[in-house]
Amino acid sequence: MNIAILSRGEHLYSTQSLLKAGMARNHVMEVLDPAYCSLETEEGQNRLYYHNELVDDLHALIPRVGASNTYFGSTIVRHFQAMGIFCVSGAEPILQSRNKWTCFQILAQARIPIPKTTLGMGYDPESALDRFGPPPYIIKLLQGTHGNGVILAESKRSALSTIETLKAAKVRFIIQEFIAESKGSDIRAIVVDGKIVAAMKRQGKEGEFRSNLHRGGSAEALKLDHKLENLALRAAKALRLGVCGVDLLESNSGPMVLEVNSTPGLEGIETTTGIDVSGQIISYIERNKRQ
To answer: Structure pTM?
Structure first.
């Protein structure tokens, strides 16, 4: 098969891992940089040109849409879908998972436990904070990755000051309860085609409330129990994502979903677990193209 990876970072670990996994199975692999894609509709047909060359021989697409390129990246994915190309994650699920508030709305509708969350654009932020109880509070930008755009407000005054600043700058955000008992740790589960293929527990470095490996956290491979596994699969299903990373928190009231990532990084999970996640994604494509 001819399989393309939609990515602006050809030399990134995740892109290279997917390229190697596909080539190891004798597929023709290539990387398409969104910056060089031109989309057209003509005579009732959708066409895509890459460096002015018509792309008409693809069988499948693996979107690796970065946060800074969400709109155009998802537009390209939608165009490929309209051309009948199999995409491991669709355009709408990518957009819905990338917007944290939209993601939480969908998860809540599916009765999936999540931290208490408020959209930060309400008219009375002080009352909203009172409904959370005592500080600290988590304030997150609606779009952000690797722990960027996540603020820990340790007092009501600092939370209100941050909220006022974000509102003045017209930055969209959410306010979320702080799960103290997680102690700076979370669980990342990778879901491919309705199955957990790998999982790890991440721990933030000392003094850091975020567990992201990009921020110096550590990780260890983990076998999920039934509750955690079921929760991660339900989240992926609710967002209609064929491939995703689901971040889970263990709280006093039980496990909950913290975030769903439609373009999960593969370096941390593959290095920590020794599992060929990229190979699992290629196998997913092969199964769907045989149907």
So the answer is: 0.89
